[in-house]
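Before surveying the methods themselves, it helps to consider a single example record, giving the amino acid sequence and C-alpha cells:
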Amino acid sequence: MTVGERIRKKRESIGISQTEFAKKVGVSKQTLYKYETNIITNIPSNTIENIANILNISPAILMGWENEETHIPQIDELINKTNSLNQKGIEELIKYTDYLLTQEKYQKFKTQEMAM
C-alpha cells in the first residue's frame, strides 16, 4: 500500500471528506487528491507530520515503516517527552530504564525457577 492509499483509507475510516481534510492539512483539495492517488509522491515532511497528527497516527505508520498492529502509541509520547529532557534527565531516564529491564529479567527468572 502506498502513502497516498494509507492517507485515503485512514481519512475515509474517520469519515472526513477530502475538502474538509484538505483544509485541516492546509493544502488544496486538488493537492490532497494528488497525494491520495499518488500523482504527487514526494510529500513534504512537514505535511506528512501534519497529516499524521490529524489522522492520529505516527508519521512512521503513514509512511509504511511501521504498521498499526505493531505500533505502540506510548512510544510516540515517550519520544516526545524524552526530546524535552536535558542531559541530566536523559542520564536519569537511562538509569531508570536499566533498572526496569533488570527487574523484568529477574521476574522472568523467578517465574522459570518456580516452574521447575
Q: What stands out?
A: The helical segments are 3-13, 18-25, 29-36, 45-55, 59-63, 73-83, 87-115. The chain has a mean pLDDT of 87. The first helix runs from residue 3 to 13.
